[in-house]
Amino acid sequence: MCEFKGYEVYKAYEDAGISAKTGNKRPAFDELLQDIKDKKCNTVVVLKLDRLTRSVADWEKILTFLEENEAFLDCANDDINTTNANGKMISRILTSVSQQEIERTSERTKIGLAGAIKVGHIPHQASLGYKRVDKKLIPDIATKDIVIRIFEMYHNGLYYKKISNILNEEKVLGKTNWRDSTIVGILENEIYKGDFVHGKRTKHPTYYSDVVEPIISKELWEECQVQKKKNSRSYQRTLNYLFLQKLKCPKCGRILGGKATTKKNGNSYFYYYCNDCKLTIKESVIENFISEFIDDIVDYDSVVNQFFLPMIKEKIENPKEEIEEEIKKQKDKFKRIREAYINEVFTLEEYDLERKKIENTLDELETKLTETEICDDLKFTPEDILIKRDIDFINSIKYPQKYKEYNKRWKDFTREEKSNLIMSYVDEITLTESSSNKCEVEYVKFRESIANPCNELYDKGYIDRTDYALFGNMVGTLRYSEYRDVEEVWQYILRLREFYDVGFYEATYNVEDKIFHFNFDYGNIDIVRVFPMEDYRNTDPNRKLKEYDLGILYIKKDDGTLLEDEEAVFKYIPDKTDGILTREVKPTLVKPANVMGLEEMYEEDDDEEITDDEVVSS
């Protein structure tokens, strides 16, 4: 066309891959305008008008610019004449059509993009800890633990520089260039709690909740953001709040903040408050509320968490098939970089760096695979929980000092350990408002992932409870569990007898009087466990029977372990056995001593706060 019209071509200007919409930086177009200003050329030739601009506002600026510089526009496919009013009107109409087209395309793109994001198709490069599978982001077994560790280190008070230094020293992912900005980017990224923000740097970002599988909890992410608002370079947490993020204001529903005061004696006293509603609650009040069952949580944690949860967690978070598949991918990747090095695509230095990254990843994956395979081999059963708890109970009687060394109680934990326990097991603690701007605890909600398996084990008789009972004219406590199959009970007792000479007999429980009838010497034995000999929950749901038969496991006070090594009773649990148990004869029922003796006992001991109602309800 230039040749046909006799134009002398001064220069071709091309902004490859850059749209002509408003806001885009176009270096070649800017150069063209400058050349027109410098009188190096006076005519702009384009294929179509929308190649020059798609914005009505921009076109008006271009028209004004051309007039001021005595320049013209010529289009190959559009009959544009900018020298008269009609030509300018036509050009404006064509530009409006182009602008509408780009706006409609943008709307359709946004709708499609929103739908894709909601199903996990994130339009960004996969962040550390994630990988793409079928266009969706899923946690990457090989790197997600690094992200979890970074959040935990920051949550524990380490600042950005310290975290990056640790990662550099350990050469995590084979890198020594971890920077503060990298750590900040990870901590600020909503993707790790399962959310995504599209257009974060624009004036109107869009927030999408729960679009990918999270790597960390929302509570941990939010708490890190609170900490981040403080001076992260100089701030390091010196106080640990047990119930942080677990308490909400009963008035406004906001999460309570934590404060502490330190007295002259050096003791710190913690409390939680709502800054808006001016409501407070002491940490000791919450601890007192949960004190009745907090040691049961500790017991559950020491047994179930020690044996079951690591295996369950390992199998859920690190499925064997996924680990094996990832190992295969890493080995294939190693072959590719080796071939690239042989073909001189990589330098030796680049090859060594990539090789070390893959080797480190493979080492971590092999370790996880080994742990998962160990879980498969252990074959740990729910019955082992009951065995472990009963062995521990007997150990606490026979070797109390050594038992304390092996088994911590709540009061023995550090504040950090207590906080981790609450964080792991408690979902929320609901408060109610009391007088004088104070709060009190209404109830504690445990996480379903912990509560449901625990309840299931209890219903099947694998977890015991402790309650008050009458022993003749004395009040004491018994450990009891629900009904289990009789043959299972016999095998269970045989396993216990591998460690201790556990005895068994049957006793009677008077349903109407709510009293246990025993006829043995209380001073010479300790009762290990009580359990119903029949499934009375189903056979007598309305409690119409007058008596229940109970199985009693006991051990004599003077007996020690049957093992030569006393330490072994703290480290192991007895294996299953094929032995045969001889069932002992049920003792003759003896009428209990006068229950009125309890009233005399209460009068003598004013410190005992057990009411008649509590005893009867047992």
Report what the structure shows.
The protein has 618 residues and is α+β, with helices and mostly antiparallel strands. The protein is built from 20 helices and 17 strands. It has helices at residues 2-5, 27-37, 56-68, 85-118, 144-155, 160-169, 180-188, 218-228, 283-317, 320-342, 348-378, 382-398, 400-406, 415-425, 448-459, 486-496, 536-539, 568-571, 597-604, 612-617, and strands spanning 43-46, 72-75, 130-133, 136-139, 196-198, 206-208, 257-262, 268-273, 280-282, 426-433, 439-446, 465-471, 474-480, 503-510, 515-517, 525-532, 547-556. It has a 4-stranded antiparallel beta sheet. The protein has a 3-stranded antiparallel beta sheet with strand order 7-8-9. A hairpin with a 5-residue loop joins strand 10 and strand 11 (439-446). It is elongated. Residues 231-236, 307-318 and 583-618 have low confidence and may be disordered.
